[in-house]
Amino acid sequence: MDLFSLKDKIVIVTGASGLLGREHVAAIADAGGTPVLLDLNEEILNKQVSDLNSKYEIDASAFSVDITDEDQIDKSCKAIIAKYGKIDGLVNNAANNPKVENTTDINFSRLENFPSNVWHMDLDVALKGTFLCIKYYGFEISKNVDGGSIVNISSDLGLISPDQRLYRVDGVEESMQPVKPITYSVVKTGIIGITKYVSTYWAHRNVRCNVVCPGGVENNQNEEFVSELIKRIPMNRMAHKTEYHGVIIFLLSLASSYINGATISADGGRTAW
After folding, report:
1. What pLDDT tens digit does each residue of the chain (273 aa) get?
2. Closest to 206 (Cα-Cα) out of 264, 155, 254
3. 239 to 29, 91, 188, 236: CA distances (angstroms)
4. What's the Cα-to-Cα distance from 59 to each of 49, 164, 210, rounded to whole Å?
5. Sign of the CA dihedral 130, 34, 249, 30?
6. Domain count within the chain
7. Cβ neighbours of residue 258 closer than 8 Å, sequence gap 6 or more
8. CA gap 251, 82 in Å, rounded
């Protein structure tokens, strides 16, 4: 079991206060690592860190950082190195979940109406943010004698197209039918591309970079939506939020020491169909 230990490892998690971000942080702490939490809301982050340090008796810390702001990332990186002396791992989890509100006469989530400013915001957080985090935190990982691990979080929709039939509403005209916005597919596919690039860039420094493509996670979704979605999943259910602990620990630890540039589907088999 020592293969799966993260003892003495300093691991940064972006989007640490989100549904899965909280679980990634808990997984790292469970495995003996020290998580460093990055998100926007300082009050929530401080409460998380206090709870983590009390429960696990560790020295976790948090930084309120806008990952689209290079100066903020640079400053936080220097502060992390000043406190811990190193960075061993990075989980790039932060992303917008694009949901564009309708007006009474326009559905802005549809491709033909999708606003350019929302396009830029979504790509900034997921793609620019991932790039900047790797540029600074990843570079610090590459300075370690033994390297380290970068884990990017994509989606099953980085591998397949969204099935827009899942979102259809009876009795609504075509131009107003809800859809999964285009930016979700673009950023989740782009994260896979970033992973492949980085996996070869610092491989000589023992830095591995892999990507996880989770499926949908239970989070009090509409029952009708869930009923339709699980018909498309061989395991006939959505994921529980704790079911990604194992793959995160695996990819951050020496248990995956020869896994690099891999795209790991964790979607109950949805992309196998």
Report:
1. 799 999 999 999 999 999 999 999 999 999 999 999 999 999 999 999 999 999 999 999 999 999 999 999 999 999 999 999 999 999 999 998 776 566 668 999 999 999 999 999 999 999 999 999 999 999 999 999 999 999 999 999 999 999 999 999 999 999 999 999 999 999 999 999 999 999 999 999 999 999 999 999 999 999 999 999 999 999 999 999 999 999 999 999 999 999 999 999 999 999 999
2. 254
3. 21, 19, 18, 10
4. 9, 44, 26
5. negative
6. 1
7. none
8. 26
Under 8 Å between Cβ of 29 and 50: no
Is 123 strand, coil or helix? helix
Residue length of the chain = 273
CATH number for 120: 3.40.50.720
Give the Cβ contact number of residue 146 at 10 Å: 11
Does 271 reside within a domain?
no
Domain-embedded: residue 214? yes
Residue 170 is assigned to a structural domain of this protein: yes
Q: Which helix (H) or strand (E) holds 52?
A: helix 42-56
| Contact (Cβ atoms closer than 8 angstroms) between residue 147 and residue 87 | no
DSSP 125: I
Tell me, yes or no, whether 270 lies in a domain.
no
Q: Among 191, 87, 78, which residue's Cα sits nearest to residue 129?
A: 191
Burial 124-143 (b: 16+ CB within 10 A, else e): bbbbbbbbbbbebbbebbbe
CB-based contact 231:165 (threshold 8 Å)? no
Residue 99 pLDDT: 64
Residue numbers of the domain that contains 150: 2-265
